[in-house]
Batch of 4 targets.
Target 1
Amino acid sequence: MHLKTDSHGQARPITGRSEFLVFGAPQIEEPEIDEVVDSMRAAWLGTGPKVAQFEENFRSYKGASHAVAVNSCTAALHVSLVALGIGPGDEVITTPLTFCATVNAILHTGATPVLADVDPLTMNIDPAEVEQRLTPRTRALLLVHFTGRPCEMDDLTRIAQEHELFLVEDCAHAIETEFHEQKAGTFGDVGCFSFYATKNVTTGEGGMVITEDRSLADRMKMLALHGMTKDAWKRFSDVGYQHYQVVAAGFKYNMMDLQAAIGIHQLRRVEANWIRRREVWNRYQEGLQGTGLVLPLDPDPDTRHGHHLYTPLVDEEHCGVSRDELLEALTARSIGVGVHYLSIGEHPYYQSRLGISPDEWPNAMSIGRTTLSLPLSARLTDSDVADVIAAVRDSVGA
């Protein structure tokens, strides 16, 4: 790690920046703050009218028929699978290059996750690998639009239709993503979205499910709040108290108005923020040429990349440093970085639970061991971007 020692003998990072550039710091502006304060003054903190407004706004933005707000994308994935009837004895095919929540949601239903390797260039699940993993127990495909790049939806929807499988889209990275002018999350039975603090639209914590199926939406909404027939807003509104009944063993997955208050204004800036992130993404593509890094593919024609993450690969032979050495060097220069992700097979729990090892999915394993994520946010200034590029070029000696 690149360090220097001060007069007290303490190691301090080498940096040209006056403050640390936090990876994934959200862009919060005055309208969100005012809306949250309004909720607090109204004393309606839980699920209420602002959640309903956010659901409607998001439904409209995605061109979906129904939207159900929940408290995380993990909750969205879980409640979707449960509502679709996925359970013990079933298999769900998904990618090994994803956050643990994707696989955990399958496990929480009692079903078995089956991993299909990714394409080494797009980093998305490979349809040919999916077909190799099909068995009579396969009930669903759970795909991830990784970093905001859309999966090959023509092939994946064909596979789902031919084998009568449910299709669930994990769109945690893909709010703005499109494939052949169709929005991510609208291809399958359900699309699940994340509004975590680092996401393109944030509510701090939060998620959303969209679907064309009214009965499925109603069931997910019911399951997301204890299996009750009426939510708190309807029970305690000015029309008078309404009795509820519990019709299923549901979950505590509802979103609060405090969260939706942030999301309402975040969503209004989603297109302007996407344009800015695309500018940053393109500046990285230009500024990091010749560094030895394997840069991400440009977006395919007739698609829209969500530009959620910028994830070059560190080829140690050409860069002169390993991935982990580069992570340390950038941190020493006050540049926040991330890793998205170590493959699922690298984690001890899944090795033990599923009896797997990472080399079963060589593409995902290789990507997970060489990838890093650079800051990519509408909040970044041109100076911030220049600092990131300079720090990378200096750290690899380019």
Note: The chain has two domains: 3-26+271-337+372-396, 30-268.
Target 2
Amino acid sequence: MDAKEVFRSFVATVNRHDVEMLRALMTDDHVFVDGMGNRMAGADTMRTGWSGYFAMCPDYWIRPDTVIAEGDLVLATGEVGGSIDGMAWQTPAAWKVVIREDKVAEWRVFADNKPVYDILAKRV
């Protein structure tokens, strides 16, 4: 598979909320970096992370509209969204993704987290 295909497969798996398949698509030493620069390491750690995020945002989705790949590097832009506590949100996003041996070694997202934080701030 080329890097674009691996990226698209990972996105489709996120959109299906298939945590076990996400784990299979990540390298063991996978690194995730969110839009605030928070870093999580390890595919098993991210299995737990994705499970928690899908529980909080049960209809989370990713929609890349531009995907560029060179070698094992993918850069993409698009948007993300979903709902938390019944309140819908969406925001533009970009991704830097490193592919190694047909798996995602690094998933770095650049997005404005304010819509999510605004909803979370309303929790009592």
Note: The chain has a mean pLDDT of 96.
Target 3
Amino acid sequence: MHPEINRLLVLLSRNIGQRKLYFSGHQIIRNACDVFAADLRKLLAELEIDRLFIGIVEDKLIYDGHYLVGPSIMGRQLVEFGRMLQCGGFIFKEDTTSEEIQVLLDFSNEFEHPISTLREARELLRSRDVVNIELASDYIAPSSLTPLEDQIVWQGLQSGGHLHSPLIVYQALFDVVAKTHGNISLDRSIDLEGAGAVSAHLLYSLRHNFTDMLQFVHYPDHDSYTVGHSVRVATLAVHIGENLGLDEELLLEFGTAALLHDVGKSKIPSEILFKPGLLTHEEFAEVQFHSRMGAEILLEQEGVTPMQVAAAWGHHLRHDGGGYPESPPWAVRGHLISLLQICDVFEALTAARPYKAPVTPLSAFGIMLADKGRFDPALLSTFISILGIYPPGNRVHLLDGSLATVISATSSVDKPLVRITHDQTGRKLDTTEQHLVDLEQDRSGKRAVAELLIGEK
């Protein structure tokens, strides 16, 4: 799969989100349309094709018969927009102009309710001189009655059935955080009930699809990493909390608080938040203000809980009393906010950012342990023992040449329980052939972990 297709679709979805914040013709919107049109032409030239078709099936984005994981997570707004237009996908021709992209973005902000029919949506596009962007009909199994154009664009669909349930949950988590940040940017109220509902789905998914769900903790989303960061911190927080034996009501509240802990960043200018280089002293001071701002925003919301406010305020406070925002000496953080701080830093260290590459969990633990006074030592020790140096969901290469997915840590942090997915020759094993191996019990040493495959699924 060409990686630029993923990037292009994430960019389009991000542009749809920006159009909700800026008026049509705003310089930011014009620049976004210019970039998309130029990148589209470059991609089509590289692929030696004259059009790009992106299909929508069961809330999934499809290209060339294959399900696109990243854009389906971060491109929720594109999927919803397609449904608003009653279409089954978009066709972008090589002559697509920046002005036509602008019209499409205007459409995304123009309608409060779905258009009645696909035919009406197509006529609306044509009425605004959009000739290089077409709307595809919904996918149907090809037959003699299927229009020829639809048979061609949907040819080779291999969607693989229903959307994998952990991905639905991750997508919903991503969506609720993205909408929360968008609403705050527009000074609208936050859907706290919605955040609580997806937190419940997260807890259920971790209990029933533990390893699959934690794989998304490592998903790189360079274009929306602030949102993805909150989702992954919440996933880690609920996983650790579950292992600590927290009752369900407290776990749900903790998960919701973790999802909302960075809401203050929605008020930080994007040119600072997504800056690829080092921040100036003034810019860093503005970023630091997000903790106080987040707490103030949440205090204005109806139904907010003390834990949610405390999470926004205190996730950058150190165990020794330092950090930010500056707090009075008598202020005491609860243990769960201290745990949230550990999840927050671990995710930031192990994730890719525009300004840095990810580090391994082992390196992250080394950095955290060396920072004396920053973390609650007992909680940090517990965190490390629960995750292990090869956290669940990661892919590892074993000494005997086989590949495996980490299922859980054991009492030996470097010897996890794994599921063998590929044999020593690299052949992918059928589901019935895959099997569990407890590396702690393997006395031969031939199946020790040789390498952690960073960023691999």
Note: The beta strands are 51-57, 60-63, 66-67, 89-93, 133-136, 395-398, 403-408, 417-422, 435-438, 449-453.
Target 4
Amino acid sequence: MLDVLTVILLAAIVVVLVMWRRESGRRAEAQTVRHLLQTFGPAQVAVQQDPRQLLVWYPLAEASRTLYPEAFAAIDAATGGRFPFSRDTIERAHAKVSTEWLGWERAHDEEYRLKGAAVEQEIARSSGEAAVLARARLDRVQHEKIERYQQRYEEYIRTAKALQALLQ
């Protein structure tokens, strides 16, 4: 009789331990999901505000996916997409960078068109040494325009290519 009670008691202890371990695993998984949401939720906002942020957050998200595949699978299932950055998010970021570039380019052209026109008026009103100095200023304005354009264009190309690479 004692042997049967011992077996029943041991079986009950094993069942309790298995249930406790399962519950502990569920809690740990839920905590991991919460931490991922707390980490990458603000990252989604940051990327919407500044698409270049995606170049920092995306590799971190991919590394986290490797470390916590079950948690990401649960979040993906709950959100109906790839968390935190879907292909659509990357495409929108690329489009926003391109749109911002085009807007900057137009504003840049207008700014330097006005600067150049002002110096050209000064040249037309001047003579002698004043005209020579004004022409030098016009050359400087044109050089500055090209220099700023090249710097900004290089930045745009680097960012656009890096975002495009995320889609590969």
Note: Residues 2-84 form one domain.
